[in-house]
Amino acid sequence: MFKSMYNWIDERLDVTPMWRDIADHEVPEHVNPAHHFSAFVYCFGGLTFFITVIQILSGMFLTMYYVPDITNAYYSVDYLQHQVAFGVIVRGMHHWGASLVIVMMFLHTLRVFFTGSYKAPREMNWVVGMLIFFVMLGLGFTGYLLPWDNKAYFATKVGMEIAASVPWIGSYIKELLAGGTIVGAQTLTRFFAIHVFFLPGVLLTLLAAHFFMIRKQGISGPL
Amino acid sequence: MAHGHKSDEKIVYVGDSRIRKTGGDKPVPPDYTSFPGKSEAFIPNFLLKEWMAGVVILVGFLVLTIAEPAPLGYPADPLNGSFIPMPDWYFLFIYQLLKYPYASEDYIVLGTIGIPGLAFGALLLAPFLDTGKERRFYRRPIASSMMIVSLVASIYLTWVSWHHYTGELEKNGVIPEHIERELKSEEQIAAGKGRFVYGKEEVVALVKADDPAFSIMKEAQCIACHGAELEGSNAPSLRGIGDTLSKEELVETITNGKADGAMPSFKDDLTAEQIDQIATWLSEQKAAAAEE
């Protein structure tokens, strides 16, 4: 039955070549940890993506309970952590996953750097990867404010002061991020929007470009 | 219809942009047959192996999640002047950098834009700076050593920052709010009162609010920190303080202060008799008495 359903779709949309592009390609021996255990260093990129998927899924569930306003944000987090079934697991995964994704991405970056994989013709993919790194840091920074506890508030305040110290445009950056002159209600909604819509949008676009280039250029050869 | 002469086909694409022009010098994904060794299909063979690495990470991740619930402190209070700000650990290296004299104050631009800009700019443009054909790191001494120096520097800065933070916590006798909150919750649950939620706790009423000791406290500016109704503000609430401190301890605290002067000494502002009066009244502030 699945076969005939697949054929029905394939007849109309010709999906087989797309599937071939995504899935049906050879992976060389030198990146396969089953052949060389040390090749596990090549897993960090895939693991970064794996944790990113976990972040997206857990984040989607968190937004079911989270309320981005200054009187309710803290109590909604408290509620989902203590009252909602498995809330403590979902929030825990999102919280620790944020650190883990940075760790994995960092290890992936080091692997690419020390194997010289960013060299021609893969320069563009390195640049895109670095942009992904910056977007991830942005997600970490904006997400840190959302529980709206003292730690979140004062860390963001310090971040704003650092942004404001940039010459000439500093005060504009600060005001753009904070949505006003203080870290307050506007900042919270703004950070929520950036964290949930703007940066994930940018992230997915960059990831698509990253993966497209890997498929187009293949994995760098053995050293 | 757009169907051509072969209109007996179920589907006929017109202007098919998917057909690739073969030949030419466009890059074609390598199939790795040129590399010696055993290559295998991405799906499912290789992905299953990668999934095994993923499962190891996932199990560790879930164990961490269950063992250490995500921290949550007390609700943000912009007026809280004593809170020690702390960004997430992966920003600590830059946070620490900005504490050094040549990266702060007059030189803040060097700290915020100069050094990080140079480091991240070089990282972003690494392929255009390190353009040689050699890929092995030990044959690229300049690039590799710069990376290792930056790594060591970042790890060092992170460590110093964390060391300062824990030192400051210890010096000020501060328990991080997310830990204090857990402890309070455990305490309250053990006492059969239900979980502790900051700002939603039941406020213990004042016992004998018309006692003259209270007006002495108002004049002595106790209320500036402990709140107009002793409900707590920058300093802890004194409602129900009699449950935790005895009269002698209260006398000691008022006379000599506490927490490195965060609670100042009042021995010059109040007479011993006044202190005794206040301590007596405060020691009567018990939750059980307030319910009557």
TrEMBL record, chain A:
TM ranges: 39-67, 96-114, 126-146, 192-214
Segments forming domain Cytochrome b/b6 N-terminal region profile: 5-223
Keyword Metal-binding: yes
Topology with respect to the bilayer: Multi-pass membrane protein
GO biological process, one term: respiratory electron transport chain
CDD domains: Cytochrome_b_N
Record keywords: Cell membrane, Electron transport, Heme, Iron, Membrane, Metal-binding, Transmembrane, Transmembrane helix, Transport
InterPro entries membership: Cyt_b/b6_N, Cytb/b6-like_sf, Cytochrome_b_N_euk/bac, Di-haem_cyt_TM
Gene3D superfamilies (UniProt xref): Cytochrome Bc1 Complex, Chain C (1.20.810.10)
GO molecular-function terms, A-Z: electron transfer activity; metal ion binding; oxidoreductase activity
Cofactor(s) for this UniProt protein: heme c; heme b
PROSITE patterns hit by this protein: CYTB_NTER (PS51002)
One matching Pfam family: Cytochrome_B
Source organism, top-level taxon: Bacteria
Subcellular localization: Cell membrane
Gene Ontology cellular component terms for the protein in this record: plasma membrane
Chief place of localization: membrane
Its job: Component of the menaquinol:cytochrome c reductase complex.
Oligomeric and partner information: The main subunits of the menaquinol:cytochrome c complex are a Rieske-type iron-sulfur protein (QcrA), a cytochrome b (QcrB) and a cytochrome c (QcrC).
Protein name: Menaquinol:cytochrome c reductase cytochrome b subunit
UniProt source species: Cohnella fermenti
From TrEMBL, chain B:
Domain Cytochrome b/b6 C-terminal region profile: 32-160
Transmembrane segments: 46-67, 107-129, 141-162
Gene3D superfamilies xrefs: Cytochrome Bc1 Complex, Chain C, Cytochrome c-like domain
One Pfam family per UniProt: Cytochrom_B_C
GO-annotated cellular components: membrane
MF terms (GO), sorted A to Z: electron transfer activity; heme binding; metal ion binding; oxidoreductase activity
Keywords for this protein: Electron transport, Heme, Iron, Membrane, Metal-binding, Transmembrane, Transmembrane helix, Transport
Superkingdom to which the source organism belongs: Bacteria
Domain Cytochrome c as annotated: residue spans: 187-286
Subcellular localization: Membrane
Main location group: membrane
Membrane topology, record value: Multi-pass membrane protein
Stated name of the protein: C-type cytochrome
Organism of derivation: Cohnella fermenti
